[in-house]
Amino acid sequence: MAASKLAFLGLGVMGYPMAGHLKAAGHDVVVFNRTPQKARKWVAQHGGRSADTPEDAASGAEIVMMCVGNDDDVRAVAGRAVTTMKAGTMLVDHTTASAEVAREVHALAKARSIGFLDAPVSGGQAGAEAGKLTIMVGGEPADYSRVESVLAHYARAVTLMGGPGSGQLTKMVNQICVAGVVQGLAEGLDFALRAGLDAQRVIDVVSKGAAQSWQMENRGKTMIADQYDFGFAVDWMRKDLGICLSEARRNGSALPTIALIDQFYARVQQMGGGRWDTSSLLRVLRPPRGDGD
Fold first, then answer.
1. Distance of CA 100 to the CA centre of its chain
2. What is the pTM of this model?
3. Would 26 be classed as within a structural domain?
4. What is the pLDDT of residues 131-158, one digit of tens each?
């Protein structure tokens, strides 16, 4: 795709590197962040321009990307951005949010003849930095075809899942599966340690078989070392699981395991681990080293 005028709203641990990939690909990028210092730091590192408001950032952009915090943030930032976007432009939301808010913003954008895609991502900070995210997209096929090649700058896979809200619903499936795998890994490691096994050797062996997972390969070693000061935060996972549980109540699905794991994450928060990596579920089963275990 030829160089485009792009805006990126939200420079958190995901948005910051994602916007960087767009600039490195040769696009004209304007960034906005609620903390202006973060936006100025990004410009110093990557070039481009920072804006003081979502309206300023979105003005003149052909495609506006967002990666903010929650449903309320999506409503607020999108509501401001569309006021200066021209008809025929595109708004893409990478926030993990509800399907409900995705449909709301789709309707808001459509009323202004602006295309909208809900496009949450998976792959964590490491995936964002490496440009190897998985992006699950909801929206109209014609809108998707207009931005697919741009999203590919920070993705290894970009897939249209269905109409508005389908990207968010797919991300919920992702988080449901991840939470279950992490809890299983935590219980398995606790079992191995209490059984007197060499936990790292156990991981080395079972990761070659049917128990293998991304979590085991990337978090097993750090869990054994009781290291959690990195990665996808428990606070964020609880937000995501709350969205999953709310949607399950609407569609009638049963998530008994997720409801329980959500409470385990609440216990991690009570320990002061809200910013710990989600693999810290092991802390619920085992106290830190030196605390009597």
1. 17
2. 0.95
3. yes
4. 999 999 999 999 999 999 999 999 999 9
